[in-house]
Structure formats: structure tokens, C-alpha cells
Design brief:
The protein folds into 2 domains: 11-191, Growth Hormone, Chain: A, CATH 1.20.1250; 263-465, Up-down Bundle (Growth Hormone, Chain: A). It is 78% helix and 0% strand. The protein is built from 19 helices and no strands. The chain has helices at 10-31, 37-44, 48-51, 53-76, 78-97, 102-130, 136-164, 169-172, 174-188, 203-226, 231-253, 262-265, 268-297, 303-309, 311-351, 360-386, 394-421, 426-451, 458-461. Helix 4 runs antiparallel to helix 10 (203-226), helix 13 packs across helix 15 (311-351) and helix 13 packs antiparallel against helix 16.
């Protein structure tokens, strides 16, 4: 007979609440500034190309350093790295709010990206560490539910602050929330063990991966403006390939000190989960970029109205995430992840039918289906990936899968952008781009069915129902 389900203590619940608060601070910061860019341009007399780096610079630095931060969290302690990262994030949020020129603001945002990259994997690892084993699926559900809610709230909160106070309050609000999260984590999460760290920091691996990712993410960010076949973009592409190939060569020759240890690289279930994330992230990124453009340019919406128009996706993402845990426990990783991937593909395919006569109401069904897919997929794939590795690797595992999500979204977005800009009209370009995203989701569905959650067997696809005593 299996052990009875473990009950969570008050300290565990408080710690989890604080971690979810930290999650919302980081996730909210990805979207809250989008609506404030015109106000920032006006405040500093800067052009949109420069101000856009308030968003791009943060994402770029975050994406480059997150794998390194995840490895450092596993080596030196998740609680310790969380404190350092959240302190950096809070301090430079304050500096960003007080910025006197655009360059000071951009520098503060870049360093906030370093802080955020340290917080995220440490926070996720601590969250799963606090949860009882039989409630692991709840971790992914809560995590992605709060992330989806924060992403949805970001543009609305940013708009309220910008309209009625100042865009600077988007930065200021991070400080008290971060302090609250730090205090609660300090009180309820046990100190990291002070065991001597036998592993050394893999500086060659860090440098090779950081340079490779920096070149890749930068070329995807500026490629549409410079032209995909410009010398700069070709040079960045070659540099990215060179450094990423060098990284894999270094990691294969390095033993216990590797930035990405061999037991992670050789874990088929974990790598399959990352491959699915890589292929389907284009759906999420593509929808968030091109649906608002369609609303503004074809439906005549204002930027604020277009932000609210995304609520069917982001709201359903948040709501579905909170219900994903019991479904994961009942259906297992293969079924729930495959179902989420299917919904993502179906939703983006429905949206690919749009044309110049499409109204907002025509968009709602496809957005709802995508939101359901996001809620089922991201919370479940996070749990499946992290629980497939050793507990000592959870910080690194969570960092890699988040990095892959952003890299996959950036690559997919670059490809879909190329389809949009070469079309005869915006609706035609979006249609072609969303059809391409639907094919990527289909490929992800095949990978999910074949490899995620074990081989494709009837028992993995339809797990036996558990009895009340917890037995199969």
C-alpha cells in the first residue's frame, strides 16, 4: 500500500506563496513596460529603436545568463542565489525608476536581467523542494498559473501606472514586493547546507554558451531591421554556430564540472521535453506579437485596447494552469502534454483562417483554445522535465527549459516574421505565419507522443486509475 498523501505545513504554504509572489514580479516585468514605451520616448526624447532595448535588452541578458544561474544555484545553494538575484533585481529596479537618461535606464534593465535570471531557476527549484513528492504537479500548475496571470496583468498595470502616475512606478512597485518575498523566504525556507562545493565553475562552458546565445538572440532581435542576409546577421549567425558547437565540445570533454552535466544531456525524457518546448513556443510568441498588430492595423484598436484584446489567451492560460495539476495526476505527463500541444496547434490553425474581413469576435475561439493549450502544456511540461532529473539538478533543469522556451520563441518568431513581411498584406502574412506555427506544433505533438513521459504505450497514454488508498 502506498503512503497516504502528505499534508503541507503552514511554513511550506507561506514559502510557496512567497515564491509565487517572486514569480509574478519577474513574469510581470516581461510585459508591463510594453505599453509604457511611448511615454519613455517622450520623457527622454529618445527614438523608438533605442527605447525598444528597454524590452529587448532585459530579455537578451535574462536569456543569456539563466543557464549559468541555474547551475550556480545547484552548486552554491538555491536560497543563497535567490537572495542575491532578488536583491540585484530590486536595487536596479529602483535605479531604473530614478533614471535621468535613457542610457542609465537601459543599463539598469540589463542588470535587472542578470538578477531575474538568478531568481528564476533558484525559485523554481525551491518551490519543487518545498512540495511533497505526491504534489509535484501542483508546482507546475501554480507556477505557470501565476506566470500567466502576471503576463496578463502586466500590460494593464503598466497602462494604469503610465496613465495615472508615471511609467517609473512600473519599476518602483518591484521594490516592496521583492522585499516582502525576501523576508518570507528568509523566515520559512531552510538555509542552504554549507557543504564544501567539490565542483568547480565551468568558465569555458559559461563563456562559450553565453557568447553563442548572445549572438543568436541578438541576430533574431535585429534581423528584421537589418535584413536576414546582411553581413552583420550572417556574421552573428556564424559566430553563434561556432560558439554553440564549441560549447557542446567543451561539455562532452568535461566531467563533473560541466555547466550542463552529461547526466542531463543523456536524459532522453528531459531532452525530449525541451525539444517539444522548442517547437511549440513559436505559437505563443507569434500570437502575442501578431494578434495585437492585427487589432491595431486592421481593426483600428488603440494599443491599450489591443492589450486588453489578449485577455482570452492570457486569462485562459492562467485559469487552465490552476486546473492542470489534477489532470496531470490523473492522465499522466504524456496525455496532458500532448493534449496541450494539440490545443496550441489547433488554436493557431483556427486563427490562421483570418482575413481582411475578420472581426475581434472571430478571433476569440482560436485565442481561447490557445490559452487552454498554454495552461495545460507549460505547467505540465515544466513538471515532467524537472521531475525527470535528479533533485540536485532541478535548478539547472528549470533554467534550461526556460532558456529553450525563449530561444524557441525567438527562432520561431524570426521565421514567422520573415513570412509576414514578404506577404502582400498583413492578414495574408499572418495567415501564412500561423499556418507555419501550426505545423511546428504538429511536429511537437509527434515528439510528445513518442518520447515525453516514456515510450508510446497504452499504459503511458492511459494510466490506470488510482484507488482511494493511493494504489493502482
Amino acid at each position: 500500500m502506498n503512503a497516504e498523501p502528505q499534508k503541507m505545513t503552514g511554513a511550506q504554504i507561506s514559502g510557496i506563496a512567497a515564491m509565487l509572489l517572486g514569480t509574478m514580479v519577474i513574469a510581470n516585468d516581461f510585459t508591463a513596460l510594453n505599453v509604457a514605451l511611448p511615454a519613455i520616448e517622450k520623457a527622454f526624447g529618445a527614438d523608438v529603436t533605442t527605447v525598444q532595448w528597454v524590452i529587448s535588452g532585459y530579455i537578451l541578458v535574462f536569456g543569456v545568463f539563466i543557464v549559468t544561474a541555474g547551475r550556480l544555484a545547484d552548486m552554491f545553494g538555491r536560497r543563497r542565489i535567490f537572495f542575491i538575484g532578488m536583491t540585484i533585481f530590486a536595487v536596479f529596479s529602483l535605479i531604473g525608476g530614478l533614471a535621468e537618461d535613457v542610457w542609465m535606464l537601459l543599463a539598469a534593465r540589463a542588470i535587472m536581467g542578470i538578477g531575474g535570471s538568478m531568481v528564476w531557476p533558484a525559485l523554481i527549484a525551491m518551490l519543487y523542494g518545498l512540495l511533497p513528492e505526491d504534489k509535484a504537479a501542483l508546482g507546475g500548475s501554480l507556477l505557470m498559473g501565476c506566470t500567466g496571470a502576471a503576463n496578463a496583468m502586466g500590460p494593464m498595470l503598466g497602462g494604469v501606472f503610465t496613465e495615472y502616475l508615471s511609467w517609473r512606478w512600473i519599476f518602483y512597485i518591484n521594490v516592496p514586493v521583492a522585499v516582502l518575498a525576501l523576508v518570507v523566504i528568509y523566515l520559512v525556507v531552510e538555509k542552504d547546507k554549507d557543504n564544501e562545493v567539490e565542483e568547480k565553475v565551468d568558465y569555458p562552458g559559461i563563456m562559450a554558451l553565453s557568447l553563442g546565445l548572445f549572438a543568436l538572440l541578438l541576430l533574431l532581435d535585429i534581423g528584421a531591421d537589418l535584413g536576414w542576409f546582411s553581413p552583420v546577421i550572417i556574421g552573428l549567425f556564424c559566430g553563434s554556430v561556432l560558439f554553440l558547437a564549441l560549447f557542446f565540445f567543451i561539455e562532452r570533454r568535461t566531467e563533473i564540472d560541466a555547466l550542463v552535466p552529461r547526466d542531463i544531456m543523456d536524459n532522453r525524457g528531459y531532452m525530449a521535453a525541451n525539444l517539444v518546448v522548442l517547437t511549440v513556443s513559436a505559437v505563443y510568441f507569434g500570437a502575442l506579437l501578431y494578434l495585437p498588430q492585427f487589432m491595431v492595423k486592421e481593426l483600428g484598436y488603440t494599443a491599450a485596447e489591443a492589450g486588453v484584446g489578449l485577455v482570452p489567451i492570457l486569462g485562459m492560460f492562467a485559469v487552465t494552469s490552476f486546473f492542470a495539476a489534477p489532470l496531470y495526476d490523473r492522465l499522466g505527463p504524456k496525455m496532458i502534454i500532448s493534449l496541450g500541444t494539440f490545443c496550441l496547434g489547433l488554436g493557431i490553425f483556427i486563427l490562421s483562417r483570418l482575413d481582411a474581413s475578420t472581426t475581434f469576435l472571430h478571433l476569440v475561439p482560436g485565442m481561447i483554445v490557445i490559452g487552454i493549450g498554454l495552461g495545460l502544456f507549460y505547467s505540465s511540461i515544466t513538471t515532467a522535465a524537472i521531475t525527470s532529473v535528479d533533485e540536485s539538478r532541478t535548478g539547472l533543469a528549470s533554467a534550461i527549459i526556460f532558456m529553450v522556451q525563449n530561444a524557441g520563441g525567438a527562432v520561431g518568431l524570426g521565421l514567422t516574421t520573415a513570412l509576414v513581411v514578404t506577404a502582400s498584406s498583413l492578414p495574408d502574412g499572418i495567415r501564412r505565419a500561423f499556418e507555419f506555427d501550426a505545423m511546428l506544433a504538429l511536429f511537437g505533438l509527434i515528439i510528445s507522443l513518442l518520447f515525453v513521459g516514456g515510450p508510446l504505450t497504452r499504459e503511458n497514454l492511459f494510466p490506470p486509475k488510482k484507488t482511494d488508498e493511493g494504489e493502482n
